[in-house]
Amino acid sequence: MTRVLPLPGDDDLRRLIHFSAHDGRIWLAGQRMLLVHAGSLGALRRELMQTIGRDATRRLLMRAGFAAGQADAQLARQVRAHASLYEAFSVGPQLHMLEGAVQVTPERFEHDPQSGHYLGIYRWDHSWEVDAHVRDFGPQQDPVCWTLLGYASGYTTGFFGQLILYKEVACVACGAPHCRIEGRPQAAWPDGAALAADYEADSMMLRLEDLQQQVETLRTTLHPPLRGATLVGESAAFQAALDLLHKAAATQVTVLLTGETGVGKERFARTLHELSPRAKGPFVAVNCAALPADLIESELFGVERGAFTGAHASRPGRFERASGGTLFLDEIGDMPLPAQAKLLRVLQEGEVERLGASNPLRVDVRVVAATNVDLDEAVAQGRFRRDLLYRLNVYPVRIPPLRERPEDLEPLARHLIRRFAAQHGKHTIGLTDRALDAMRRHRWPGNVRELENLIERGVILVPSGTRIDVEHLFPTLLNGPEAVVGANGRLAPPPCADVGSIFDELQRRGVALPRLEQALLEEAVRRSAGNLTAAARSLGLTRAQLRYRLAHPEERRT
Fold first, then answer.
1. Domain 498-557 maps to which CATH number in 3.30.750, 3.30.70, 1.10.10, 3.40.50?
2. What is the C-alpha separation between 50 and 6, in angstroms, rounded?
3. Domain range summary for the chain, segments of one domain joined by +
4. Residue 527, class by beta-carbon neighbours within 10 Å (0-12 exposed, 13-18 middle, 19+ buried)?
5. Which of 100, 223, 272, 518 is the most buried (most CB within 10 A)?
6. Helix (H) or strand (E) holding 135
7. Could you say which architecture CATH assigns to the domain 223-400?
8. Residues 6+ apart with CB under 8 A from 109
């Protein structure tokens, strides 16, 4: 007689499924899901069979299922971190059922972490793939639950961290009363290599990957990798700015970087330096807005001993320190007018004169300036010299704000996650779909600097081995009303609904507390189909307390 292993309750998994009625999206623990007609998937399966053949379709669908299983495996230990191994592993079969793929009945579960032994036997009923395949192609000689099989292999592989492969040893499409699968490590199967090959890219995919590698090689040839600072982005606006940077790198032209606060002007300046023939020389950065007005000239141009009270020794300025390299003048629009006059002379003559000195010094410096203000407007207001603007604005490069390059958000975030995960010693998988969606809707007033801060916060807050979700990035972000799947399969309000909105609505309707409590009690009983024990548990009450409150509503009015 076949043994049936009971599955744990799945209320914890149901609470992970959210239906956002306000925007038409469905989430599973932050990952976007879809309710798709099984018939449409069957039509896709039929088209694939007719276009690329049975074997290629089987491998393609198995790989798709494998990827889905691996995604769900990332949730398992997070959701049931303190449960037994079997209960934690059961997240996969239970999610497979909640996602509407198949009914799963565990029959055997063995795992030895020391030896790596694993044996899993599961019965499947109501497979959507059997229904779709038999409807289009009739009874079969070989099993047809390809996506489901790939899911089981991907989930188990992701959960245990070793390649576990399943075979469908019985299938309803072949006349069996149930579908049944058996899973073992690859080495435990005599034909393990052949089973593993089903999850490898076929020749068509290999040709595509080879073409992608050729494209990447060509791109690298056209734009050689940067030797220093890393600039990340593929958007047209970003690439246009980067192309201007590449063209200026080999020259000695003075570059003016413009853009909003936080777009990464210093990173662009460092990249320009690293790409230039001056890369082996010093890169000196000065924030003109951070230096007091009475010190900026001495910082930039240097001081001779005795030039003023307290000048006990001669000191070179930033121009001299940057000789042979690049001087980056950030926030140049905030430079005082007297310093602007001296800067203009340095740019014109290539000479710098220390405070208190009588002889100028030759300097070999490439100047890169940056500003987030409109220098033309500053000139009109008398805050910036027009002749200096003409001298600086020879080669302007506008760095686009992050909101103008939304396609760069995800690669930037991935780059920052890797950086901060290494810095803080965290193993972070990445971002949930819901977090990415919130990032795309955000306006990013602080640009890349703001993104850096949010990603670092997310890496620190998220548990190791999990994905950064929206609450880790935007803790104050309020989503619209959502619903979750209750134990009876019906939609129910989320457990963390907006209390303020509920209170406002109750006041608008004139609902008093006794009436609200009575409605809650009756709704709990209705959703539990009259089961008082289950209703009481959902309300955090004992059965006796629930019975008493239902029987004595008048006591709540006194």
1. 1.10.10
2. 41
3. 36-205, 223-400, 498-557
4. middle
5. 272
6. helix 128-137
7. 3-Layer(aba) Sandwich (3.40)
8. 5, 86, 89, 119, 120
CB–CB of 369/329 below 8 Å?
yes
Neighbours of 76 (CB within 10 A): 22
How far apart CA 536 and CA 547 sit, in angstroms, is 9
Element (H, E) at 285: strand 283-287
The tokens of 366 are what? 């490439």
Task: Tally Cβ neighbours within 10 Å of residue 530.
Answer: 9
d(CA 467, CA 32): 13
Q: Give the whole-angstrom CA distance, residue 389 versus residue 328.
A: 16
Angle in degrees, CA 452, 457, 458, rounded to 5: 100
Residue 396: φ, ψ to 5° = -80, 140
Backbone phi, then psi, for 394, in 5-degree steps?
-65, -40
Helix H or strand E encompassing 18 = strand 17-20
Name the residue among 359, 255, 338 with its Cα closest to residue 296. 338
Q: Which of 144, 124, 147 is nearest to 136 (CA)?
A: 144
CB proximity list for 495: less than 8 A, separation 6 or greater: 15, 484
- How far from 209 is each of 62, 66, 68, 219, 220, CA to CA, in Å? 19, 19, 21, 15, 16
Alpha helices in 442-498, H assignment, sequence order: 447-461, 470-473
DSSP string, 169-222: EE-GGGT-SSEEEEEEEGGGSTTHHHHHHTTS--HHHHHHHHHHHHHHHHHHHH
**Given this model, what pLDDT does residue 74 score?**
83
3-state secondary structure string across 513-524: HHHHHHHHHHHH
Cα separation, 113 vs 85, in Å, equals: 11
Is 546:532 a contact under the CB 8 Å cutoff? yes
Q: What is the DSSP letter of 363?
A: -
Query: What mean pLDDT is predicted for residues 133-146?
Result: 94
Task: Provide the CATH topology of domain 36-205.
Answer: Muramoyl-pentapeptide Carboxypeptidase; domain 2 (3.30.1380)
* pLDDT for the residue numbered 481: 54
For 304-341, b/e burial (b = at least 16 CB within 10 A) is beebeeebeeebbbbbbebbebbbbbbbbbbbeeebbe
pTM over the 0.70 mark: no
Q: Tally Cβ neighbours within 10 Å of residue 302.
A: 23
Q: How far apart are CA 257 and CA 241, in angstroms?
A: 10
Q: Quick check: helix, strand or coil at residue 112?
A: strand
CB 125 within 8 A of CB 178: yes
Total residues belonging to the chain: 558
CA distance 524 to 539: 7
pLDDT band at 3 (very low <50, low <70, confident <90, very high): low
pLDDT the model gives residue 349: 87
- Phi/psi for 31 (5° steps) reads -100, 135
Question: Residue holding tokens 């620190």?
Answer: 460
What does the pLDDT read at residue 208?
46
CB atoms within 10 A of CB 426: 18
What's the chain's average pLDDT? 85
Q: Which two three-digit tokens encode residue 44?
A: 């896709």
